[in-house]
Amino acid sequence: MLAKRFNKVLIRNMKLKSWILLSLLIALVVACGGDDEEPEQPIDPNRGKSYFFLEPGKYREYNVYEIRYSGVGFSDTSEYQIRVEVGEGFTSGGETSHLVNRFRREDATERWELDSVWTARIEGNKGISVENNVPIVKMTFPLDTGNRWDSNLLNSRQPVVSRVVNFNSNFTVGLNTFLKTAEVEFSNFDDGIVDRFISKEVYRDSIGMIYKLYDSVKYCTRDCQLGSQIVQSGRYYREELIAHGFLDED
Length: 250
Hints:
mainly beta
């Protein structure tokens, strides 16, 4: 009787061990994915280029709000409008660039007057804007929140680590909410004592830039309480998209 009971226990333990081994084998096969699992596809290297929109004939119009600080209690505030028009491409140094004509007016009752001419291009994996003869790397492709780059790589300014903080997300400008946007952060620094430097731009797929913020100021540190954040000098600049389209649609 005792031998039979021992044999039953032995058989039960062998079955349990076999079941455990089978379960482990199944788990291992699932973890490895099997031979039929599709490999992870690489990110499209062109992803995001349509955000840096350079279609000839495209125009965008912005409301601009600007403050220039010249001393404690002294500032000049202005509001006006900017219109940018993308021109035909031209080849220089083997790269195709586009003229970006910038017009300005004080309000909708006035005519647009040419303010300046910039250029822009996609060179390899970089979206580059040449602003007042200064080339700035606005973004790198494929566009992704993991991207990091030096936006001053092509000029003599101090290196600036820029990054994509949001991609393919929603962004509200005024009363309008845009889908499929990319938010690029060039700087986000504020020590609350000496200075503040916040700079970012937001782009919409197949439209281009829809929002820009540049806030670079020095706080008063002489005859002012430290940490009071009283502005001594600097500039606050904001652009918000109000209209866009193509010239041949007007």
